[in-house]
């Protein structure tokens, strides 16, 4: 549904060039919820604004629903009309709602239809229908100032759906909301994704958003996508930074890595049927070893339980080849725990200049 190829955006600031996007390749499948995460300044907002050409890319292509939007971005009335038609099938939800204070809730939802030239009676019918869809049927005549933050965002979502889009773009739509309201807005986005067959591309800096609602995700750093794939695939990929952030584990590995002294620390990812089987206790009984659990996290993603566990095995790494092999034979992803790095958390930590290359799992 959305494909960017070699997407680059360079801004001119204070006499020098600043590269916000550096050759971004992104592939979002039809009907999925795709999250893009990264620290502030990673290029996330520039990416989403280039997808609907609110920002014109310096180079590269953007294809949405089979149409090359960058080819419609030329000069002249014909190109402009084609781009406007293409944009009408792409809804946009903003972080700070961007509602017009001079219009009622229904008037805000009608605005895109008014711009498209839809007759007044049809505009009103469609707006009321959309407000019912987002749970605000009783607020049609209210003014934005009378609404809570969550209600304002629901109005923004209804307005974004006015043109019957196939794609919904969400730029940090929940970052200004409290946790409970965030959960309700994410549940609404997921419901709309399923009911309407919407493809949703959302920008966020919160890993909980990815865990709660996303089918696939990409990690951005310094204007580049350094890792992407389905969430379930990333969780099964050794070395995945996104997997580590989705399921942070306690029990810091030793400074020398997963093997220090007479113990071996490994991270184990459970997914699919393995989450309901007592595999760690079987490991202990089968090989007569004491297994220490240093940290664990489990959650439901896409309706399935997924978990990660950090365990400590007695002996050096070479002494534990067979026990580790046993875990892998049971369908678990097993990797030696690395020393903590300062590059992992998009929200709070520093990032290295050269990103680690991680296998794409799509």
Task: Output the keywords.
single chain; 362 residues; alpha/beta; six-stranded mixed sheet; five-stranded antiparallel sheet; 11 helices; 28% strand; elongated; disordered C terminus
Condensed summary:
The protein has 362 residues and is of the alpha/beta class. 30% of the residues lie in helices and 28% in strands. The protein has helices spanning 44-51, 77-87, 105-115, 120-133, 149-160, 179-196, 207-213, 231-235, 241-246, 279-287, 321-329, and strands at residues 2-13, 16-28, 33-37, 59-64, 67-68, 90-93, 167-171, 199-204, 216-221, 224-230, 259-260, 263-271, 292-301, 304-314, 333-336.
List the helices and strands and how they pair.
Blueprint: E1 2-13, E2 16-28, E3 33-37, H1 44-51, E4 59-64, E5 67-68, H2 77-87, E6 90-93, H3 105-115, H4 120-133, H5 149-160, E7 167-171, H6 179-196, E8 199-204, H7 207-213, E9 216-221, E10 224-230, H8 231-235, H9 241-246, E11 259-260, E12 263-271, H10 279-287, E13 292-301, E14 304-314, H11 321-329, E15 333-336
Parallel strand pairs: 3-8, 3-9, 6-7, 7-8
Antiparallel strand pairs: 1-2, 1-4, 4-5, 9-10, 11-12, 12-14, 12-15, 13-14
Helix pairs in contact: 3-4, 3-5, 4-5, 5-6
């Amino acid at each position: 549904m959305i494909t960017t190829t070699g997407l680059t955006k360079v801004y001119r600031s204070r006499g020098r060039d600043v590269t916000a996007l550096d050759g971004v390749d992104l592939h979002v499948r039809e009907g999925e919820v795709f999250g893009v995460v990264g620290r502030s300044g990673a290029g996330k907002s520039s990416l989403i604004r280039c997808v609907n050409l609110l920002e014109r890319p310096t180079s590269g292509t953007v294809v949405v629903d089979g149409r090359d939007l960058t080819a419609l971005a030329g000069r002249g009335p014909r190109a402009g009309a084609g781009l406007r038609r293409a944009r009408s099938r792409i809804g946009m939800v903003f972080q700070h709602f961007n509602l017009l204070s001079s219009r009622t809730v229904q008037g805000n939802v009608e605005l895109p239809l008014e711009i498209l030239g839809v007759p007044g009676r049809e505009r009103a019918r469609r707006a009321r229908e959309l407000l019912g869809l987002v749970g605000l049927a009783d607020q049609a005549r209210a003014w934005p100032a009378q609404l809570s933050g969550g209600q304002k965002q629901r109005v923004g979502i209804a307005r974004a759906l006015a043109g019957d889009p196939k794609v919904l773009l969400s730029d940090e739509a929940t970052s200004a909301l409290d946790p409970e309201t965030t959960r309700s807005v994410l549940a609404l986005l997921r419901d709309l994704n399923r009911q309407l067959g919407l493809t949703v591309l959302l920008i966020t800096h919160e890993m909980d958003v990815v865990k709660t609602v996303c089918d696939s995700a990409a990690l951005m750093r310094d204007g580049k996508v350094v890792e992407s794939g389905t969430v379930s695939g990333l969780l099964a990929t050794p070395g995945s930074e996104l997997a580590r952030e989705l399921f942070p584990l306690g029990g810091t590995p030793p400074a020398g890595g997963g093997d220090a002294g007479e113990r071996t620390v490994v991270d184990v990812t459970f997914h699919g049927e393995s989450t309901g089987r007592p595999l760690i206790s079987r490991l202990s009984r089968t090989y007569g070893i004491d297994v220490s659990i240093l940290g664990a996290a489990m959650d439901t993603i896409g309706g399935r339980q997924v978990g990660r566990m950090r365990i400590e095995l007695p002996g050096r790494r070479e002494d534990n080849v067979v026990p580790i092999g046993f875990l892998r034979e049971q369908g678990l992803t097993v990797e030696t725990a690395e020393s903590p790095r300062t590059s992992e958390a998009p929200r709070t930590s520093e990032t290295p200049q050269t990103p680690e290359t991680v296998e794409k799992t799509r």
